[in-house]
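User: Sequence recovery, please. Input:
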């Protein structure tokens, strides 16, 4: 009897790149929605939210490019994203959530 592997490590990098793409597409949609909200109501909170969502989109694009580069160089690469990149994504997400709360609280 031959032992079969429990998972296929060859597909993991491809799934990771696809996950980065989905997340970046979501951030692009968020940026467009924030742009629409800012164009309707020119408040400072909405401008900050629009700017931060654009920064988040840029950081996610950098992360996606970094991951795609690692997969092209070594398809079996299991390295994770750099910690400053993950910190920047988390910080932008928190700042966007806070500015959205302030924006909607001030408009109510």
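Assistant: Recovered sequence (108 residues):
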């Amino acid at each position: 009897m031959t032992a079969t592997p429990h998972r296929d490590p060859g597909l993991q990098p491809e799934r990771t790149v696809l996950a980065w793409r989905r997340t970046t597409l979501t951030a692009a949609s968020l940026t467009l929605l924030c742009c629409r909200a800012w164009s309707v109501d020119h408040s400072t909170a909405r401008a900050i939210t629009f700017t931060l969502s654009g920064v988040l989109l840029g950081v996610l694009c950098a992360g996606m490019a970094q991951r795609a580069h690692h997969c092209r160089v070594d398809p079996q690469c299991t390295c994770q994203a750099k910690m400053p990149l993950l910190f920047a994504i988390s910080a932008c997400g928190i700042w966007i959530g806070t500015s959205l709360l302030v924006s909607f609280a001030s408009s109510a």
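The radius of gyration is 18 Å.
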